[in-house]
Amino acid sequence: MDLLLLEKTLLGLFAATVVATIVSKLRGKKFKLPPGPIPVPVFGNWLQVGDDLNHRNLSDYAKKFGNIFLLRMGQRNLVVVSSPELAKDVLHTQGVEFGSRTRNVVFDIFTGKGQDMVFTVYGEHWRKMRRIMTVPFFTNKVVQQYRQGWEAEAAAVVDDVKKNPDSATTGIVLRRRLQLMMYNNMYRIMFDTRFESEDDPMFVKLRALNGERSRLAQSFDYNYGDFIPILRPLLKGYLNICKEVKDRRLKLFKDHFVDMRKKLASTKPMDNDGLKCAIDHILDAQQKGEINEDNVLYIVENINVAAIETTLWSIEWGIAELVNNPEVQRKVREEMERVLGAGVQVTEPDMVKLPYLQAVIKETLRLRMAIPLLVPHMNLQDAKLGGFDIPAESKILVNAWWLANNPAQWNKPEEFRPERFLEEESKVEANGNDFRYLPFGVGRRSCPGIILALPILGITLGRLVQNFHLLPPPGHSKLDTTEKGGQFSLHILNHSTILMNPTSL
Ligand code: HEM
């Protein structure tokens, strides 16, 4: 760092300290803020609590400070909600007041300051984007149009695993093949296209750029510049990398997918809705002037992240739990054989007849929530919550993982026991009908992709268990299920090697 910058930074820090002290004095008089650790000027609670505010650390703070507490992270207010009643208030009763999103310096780059749908503030743009995306992505018609494609993709995974001699000897990192499957499931919907293999050059490029985007966005490395604006100049290098990745990514989406599809549409006009893929609908909306070209690309960006990664992480967690709980795995296999008949491959319409498989999916999403704190919410105006004042533009985290793993609310929540969803919790669904269980959120900003995610999870896990005994690799009795959290994501730290013995030869 050059000396001038250091001098400027120190001076800025001093000025910020003075301003923060005055503001906090004034604020203290005006607001009845939620409890929390005592903040120090400038840094707030940041130095006390650190960067990694994952669902487990935040559950520990809830035990100490209560079901609503406030952390000052530099200049930012972070309010954490940890009871079903308060979750209901944020997501349902005051769903409009708390229906915005916070972004940060990095998410601002990747979403063009909220030109997308997932990270945009609550308002006209969000409503329009959600409406435009519903018909091409989030209806039962879409499930019926694509479910055979998803079944074919799962069958292709089974075939490839069977062909690979390592599968039943040393084991394979199954995730790699499942990642290709998830890209194909979503790129079929978006662009009516798929990638042949893990080595397909376009797939390799996409995977690398999307991976880089996620790593940069979910990292804690940029917190200092986000929490303390005066330090932002020091983030310049990081933000430049983000900008470069964003530009390369959007260019790839445009040149190789959106424009290709446009060209195809102009040479071979589509005469009925049945032949349209999602991007055709989205381009129609652009032609009508409802959205602009950037919005189109940000829709593609959102699906690449919100749909592919979350579902892949959940599949990966499901497999890990099935390997580590062989009795559960046996029961899933037995149910399919009993209900469908030996060797009959499971399809989407079968799901309603397979309650145990559904319970396994629910239990996976309970214990291993892919987005354990939901996507952060935000109140645009000053608001009230749980009898406290919440200053405008606070980041509101709903600790959905704790709601679903609090021993005061669930019977032995640390156990992976799908039976709970057939016994004492048989009325609980994944769609948010119970505020203790919100793997997809609930209310205005809830996940519209649930309608696709549940059948994809069912088909994939079902086919794998039908065709293979899923086991830990030789020399291991269990898979390592250490978690890796990000700004609001949760996935498995080590992508496991899995031994896959065919159930029939
Ligand atoms: C197992 C897979 C998935 C999980 C666990 C999951 C979970 C979530 C969660 C927790 C939220 C935030 C809810 C909130 O903030 O209140 C969300 C939002 C969202 N999800 Fe999903 N999701 C999954 C799959 C998908 C899929 C397949 C798609 C698209 C095809 C999708 C699209 C979205 C979108 C667009 C939003 C933003 C909604 C908004 O802000 O209005 N998700 N998801």
TrEMBL record:
<dbReference type="GO" id="GO:0016020">
    <property type="term" value="C:membrane"/>
</dbReference>
<feature type="binding site" description="axial binding residue">
    <location>
        <position position="447"/>
    </location>
    <ligand>
        <name>heme</name>
    </ligand>
</feature>
<comment type="pathway">
    <text>Phenylpropanoid metabolism; trans-4-coumarate biosynthesis; trans-4-coumarate from trans-cinnamate: step 1/1.</text>
</comment>
<keyword id="KW-0503">Monooxygenase</keyword>
<keyword id="KW-0349">Heme</keyword>
<dbReference type="InterPro" id="IPR017972">
    <property type="entry name" value="Cyt_P450_CS"/>
</dbReference>
<dbReference type="InterPro" id="IPR001128">
    <property type="entry name" value="Cyt_P450"/>
</dbReference>
<dbReference type="GO" id="GO:0016710">
    <property type="term" value="F:trans-cinnamate 4-monooxygenase activity"/>
</dbReference>
<protein>
    <recommendedName>
        <fullName>trans-cinnamate 4-monooxygenase</fullName>
        <ecNumber>1.14.14.91</ecNumber>
    </recommendedName>
</protein>
<keyword id="KW-0408">Iron</keyword>
<dbReference type="GO" id="GO:0020037">
    <property type="term" value="F:heme binding"/>
</dbReference>
<comment type="similarity">
    <text>Belongs to the cytochrome P450 family.</text>
</comment>
<dbReference type="InterPro" id="IPR002401">
    <property type="entry name" value="Cyt_P450_E_grp-I"/>
</dbReference>
<dbReference type="GO" id="GO:0009808">
    <property type="term" value="P:lignin metabolic process"/>
</dbReference>
<keyword id="KW-0479">Metal-binding</keyword>
<keyword id="KW-0560">Oxidoreductase</keyword>
<dbReference type="InterPro" id="IPR036396">
    <property type="entry name" value="Cyt_P450_sf"/>
</dbReference>
<dbReference type="Pfam" id="PF00067">
    <property type="entry name" value="p450"/>
</dbReference>
<dbReference type="GO" id="GO:0005506">
    <property type="term" value="F:iron ion binding"/>
</dbReference>
